[in-house]
Amino acid sequence: KTLDESTANARGDDIASLARYMQSKTCRNVFLMLGAGISTAAGIPDFRSPDTGLYANLARLNLPYPEAVFEINFFRRHPEPFYMLAKELYPGKFRPTLTHSFVRLLASKSLLHTCFTQNIDTLERRAGVPAGKIIEAHGSFATQRCIECKRPYDDEKMKKAVKEGSIPRCENAKCKGTGKTRRNEFGEEEKERGLVKPDIVFFGEGLPDEFHRAIPTLREADLLIVMGTSLTVRPFAMLAELVREGCLRVLINLEKVGDLGDREDDIVCLGKCDEIVQELARELGWEEELQKAWEAT
Ligand code: APR
Predict the structure, then answer these.
(1) Is 120 marked as binding a ligand?
(2) Residue span of the signal peptide, if any (predicted)?
(3) Is 138 a catalytic residue?
(4) Percent of all residues in the chain with a pLDDT value above 90, rounded to a whole number
(5) Is this prediction's ipTM beyond 0.95?
(6) Cα(109) to centroid of ligand 1, in Å?
């Protein structure tokens, strides 16, 4: 069933039946799959929305193609575009949205089993979702390290570098560096130090072990809610196909994506996630608590 704005009343019925299911005894383990669409209302552009998406607006960084900004081999040669973007995206100036606070409510009601997120903005943590419930499948800006020797780099120094727009370099004397040499300000030859990169999963890098370790737990899912993602990037996107037949799958997104809607009892709610989440909270009788949770962020 695909319910868009024009069938709002039908959508209302679906949200009412979803709320009833969530309050039933059979719905114990809720799993989430989150993408950049849940942070657009916080002022962070998503990647692929036409016009507003990041990939439509990176032309000014003169990249060979937009995704290059998150490619490890391109970053090794040209770290500048990523660090220009990092300055705009760096956590600290963005506030969680109602949708992030809804995730926190699911946890406080002991319904949240695991929140798989592709987002690197750490807004789930900022909203108060317990860290143990969050799998940041594409890493985050929370920590950083040298890409050569993997030595962690100081948080305060990183914040300063990103703010100044300078490129942080490894300070580990034992680091072999990039293998290239360069002349320092005294004209002496010295090894070029390794680049520091936030622990964000770039194209060409593997996803964190905790992502792979969490995949088998999807068989315990009674409800999977997919929000704000185009389900373009694998292996993350494949999670939606791994839940068992008896698990109810719900899409909350501006557009239909992936195979959501193909299973008989899938529920597809097209629209802005904050609005749909608010309707769902109302049906659940959580509207006050949602508002309070959000005001506390
Ligand atoms: N409410 C609901 N859906 C929204 C909203 C909103 N307010 N804003 C945007 N969307 C939808 C878009 O329609 C789109 O389907 O969210 C989705 C965002 O898709 P992408 O921009 O592709 O973001 P995402 O799916 O998170 O990208 C996945 O791609 O570049 C890599 O690693 C990066 O994690 C990222 C991955």
Answers:
(1) yes
(2) none
(3) yes
(4) 85
(5) yes
(6) 27
* Tens-place pLDDT, residues 81-97: 999 999 988 888 899 99
Which one, of 218, 238, 233, 227, lies nearest residue 114 by Cα?
218
Q: Could you tell me if 30 and 111 are in contact, meaning their C-beta atoms sit under 8 angstroms apart?
A: yes
What confidence category does residue 139 fall into, taking pLDDT thresholds of 50, 70 and 90?
very high
- By the 10 Å C-beta count (0-12 exposed, 13-18 middle, 19+ buried), 33 is classed as buried
Identity of residue 66: P
Integer Cα distance of 163 and 257 in angstroms: 36
Active-site residue, selected from the candidate residues 78, 100, 113, 138? 138
Tell how far the Cα of 227 is from the centroid of ligand 1, in angstroms: 9
Tell me the best of 71, 230, 269, 273 to mutate to test the pocket of ligand 1, counting ligand atoms within 8 Å of each CB and taking the most.
Answer: 230
The candidate with the shortest Cα–Cα distance to 87, out of 8, 12, 141, 130, is: 141
What pTM, to 2 d.p., does this model score? 0.93
Q: Taking residues 194-215, what's their average pLDDT?
A: 96
